[in-house]
Task: inverse folding
């Protein structure tokens, strides 16, 4: 079962800037990659995932949406959510 984590962000977003180092810590801790996508430059994702705010993090398992976080997510909460699907 393939797990994919995507963080949608946009330039100039303070919450996004705060989320980046958290994502990097989670990547190191769990040995995974969190894909960063600029929602403004890739508008197809806005409709696909009904994006309303950035950052938005989605956890997909076999391309099925399992979890979604809007706004800054703390490391412990994000790690715990991802671990359920690894």
Result:
């Amino acid at each position: 079962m393939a797990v994919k984590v995507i963080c949608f962000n946009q330039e100039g977003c303070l919450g996004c800037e705060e989320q980046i180092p958290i994502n990097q810590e989670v990547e190191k801790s769990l040995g995974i990659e969190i894909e960063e996508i600029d929602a403004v430059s890739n508008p197809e994702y806005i409709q696909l995932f009904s994006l309303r705010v950035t950052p938005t993090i989605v956890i997909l398992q076999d391309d099925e949406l399992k979890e979604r976080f809007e706004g800054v997510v703390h490391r412990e909460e994000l790690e715990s959510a991802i671990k359920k699907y690894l």
Notes: The chain has a mean pLDDT of 97. The two ends are 8 Å apart (CA to CA). The chain has three helices and four strands.
